[in-house]
């Protein structure tokens, strides 16, 4: 069937490669999330956030006249639609198949975990050859991966600290429980200091904050 000139510049013409497939997936997700609200409404939301994605860009993306999306656009569109940026990339959670890299389909949740730093992508030897697969395996324990892992651990420890501190300061907490909680807080502080030390050794950005000031008596 012969395509018209108009159809050749819309999503009626399927994506030609992995990059265009990503653009189509993002476009469809944006269209679904904005629902009955106009493209101008979404453009106004992005403008209010400080980086304008114009109505024409949104329309061209949704129709397929534009077949790419920048990282800046993904972030601000996600913020305007009140979803995580990764959801625009991987909307078919948890099990919908998606190509994590060209030609490598995985469940969407696996792609999301890699994108968010929870796991490292390891290509199969059959796909990239034994030598390159070994290089990727070595990268799995790289400093960058370790910084992500330690940062996540640090956040979890700090969340525990906040909860325990609230309990310790509560007037309804009995002396016995307060003593136990105080010991737990001390142990978490020690672990936090170790994690911060590891992060600093890896040249990560670690900033003092009110939690630390509180321990120091500030």
What features would you describe in this structure?
The structure is a single chain. With 218 residues, this protein is mainly alpha-helical. The chain has three domains: 10-89, 434 Repressor (Amino-terminal Domain), CATH 1.10.260.40; 92-120, no CATH class; 143-216. The protein has helices at residues 18-34, 39-48, 55-63, 71-80, 85-89, 108-115, 125-128, 130-139, 143-169, 175-201, 210-215; strands spanning 97-101, 104-107. The chain has a two-stranded antiparallel sheet with strand order 1-2. Strand 1 and strand 2 (104-107) form a beta hairpin.
Number of strands: 2
The chain-level mean pLDDT equals: 87
Order of helices and strands: HHHHHEEHHHHHH
Residues in β-strands, percent:
under 5%
From the helix content, strand content and strand pairing, which structural class follows?
mainly alpha
Instruction: Summarize the amount of helix as a percent range.
Output: 55-70%
CATH hierarchy: architecture of the largest domain: Orthogonal Bundle
Q: What is the number of independent domains?
A: 3
Question: What is the CATH class of the largest domain?
Answer: Mainly Alpha
CATH topology of the largest domain: 434 Repressor (Amino-terminal Domain)
* Principal-axes shape call: elongated
Give the CATH superfamily of the largest domain: lambda repressor-like DNA-binding domains
Enumerate how many helices there are, as a single number. 11
Low-confidence stretches: 1-6
GO molecular function: DNA binding
Organism: Mycolicibacter engbaekii
Protein name: HTH cro/C1-type domain-containing protein
Domain HTH cro/C1-type: 53-88
């Amino acid at each position: 069937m012969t395509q018209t000139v108009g159809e050749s510049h819309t999503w009626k013409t399927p994506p030609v490669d992995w990059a265009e497939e990503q653009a189509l997936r993002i476009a469809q997700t944006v269209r679904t999330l904005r629902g009955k609200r106009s493209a101008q409404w979404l453009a106004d939301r992005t403008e209010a956030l400080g980086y304008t994605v114009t109505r024409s860009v949104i329309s061209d993306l949704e129709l397929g006249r534009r077949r790419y999306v920048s990282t800046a656009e993904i972030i601000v569109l996600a913020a305007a639609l009140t979803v995580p940026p990764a959801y625009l990339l991987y909307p078919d959670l948890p099990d919908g198949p998606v190509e994590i890299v060209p030609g490598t389909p995985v469940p969407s949740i696996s792609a999301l975990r890699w994108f968010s730093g929870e796991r490292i992508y390891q290509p199969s030897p059959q796909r990239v050859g034994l030598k390159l697969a070994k290089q990727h395996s070595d990268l799995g324990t790289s400093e960058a991966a370790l910084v992500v892992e330690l940062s996540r651990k640090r956040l979890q420890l700090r969340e525990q600290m906040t909860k325990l501190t609230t309990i310790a300061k509560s007037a309804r907490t009995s002396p016995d429980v307060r003593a136990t909680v105080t010991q737990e807080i001390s142990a978490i502080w020690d672990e936090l200091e170790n994690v911060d030390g590891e992060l600093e050794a890896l040249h990560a950005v670690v900033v003092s904050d009110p939690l630390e000031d509180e321990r120091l008596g500030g």
